[in-house]
Write the structure tokens for this entry.
Amino acid sequence: MQPPHNPYGQQAPYGQQAPYGQQPPANPYAAPAAAPAMYRQNVFVPHGGTAGPLLGPTLRRLKLAAGIGQLLALAVGLTLMIAGAVMGEDEGGAIVIAGMGGLGFCYLLIFVYAIVNAIWIYQFWSWIPPEQRYTSMWKKYISPGAAVGFMFIPGFNLYWMFVVAFGIADIMERLRVQYPSSKGPVMTLAILTIVVPMVFFPAGPFLQYLFAKHVEEMAKEMHARMTGAANPLVGA
């Protein structure tokens, strides 16, 4: 027996319905959903993160001047205090006071050095492309504010100074792959900059200057390749 005639033509049978409370199976031929923006696995790029301007040599020169000044003030202050103590209380009292003033000026320059160093870290970290702001010692995103702010956490700052110094060297080595530089690797200099002052502190300002100069010159060459500029080392 023939089925009754359907004036609308043959209709496709209904597919199997998913049980109540469950999602239907995914279509394997559907286009994949867009992945969230991130520069490394499990580390998300913050919304609106941009790279800052290239850092000039002024801050590292100010750091060096403040570092040399504090060493001289320390040497003069200690010399005057020792000389005043040898001369005795009556004759050397004024000299001891002058020596204490020299030590006070040394502490003031240490404070100035710390401020200039914090500004340098912030500005250099701001230049780093946001997708590169992580290190092998801190795999999450590090903002310029965090790079500086964590330096002021007591105890933790002893670890964080390694994260920042070694992190800059690590980041510059990664950038060399995409933007080659004529400057050599900086990791050895970063290690010396942190370790040597722990044994011989007067070397600190000079090693900090050499480290900053090295990475700034690398950044100039890389920045020139990023923007297509010429003569990246003019004015270094």
Q: What stands out?
A: Residues 132 and 174 are 8 Å apart (CA to CA). Residues 11-15, 28-42, 230-236 have pLDDT under 50 and may be disordered. The longest strand covers residues 38-40. Residues 53-227 form one domain.
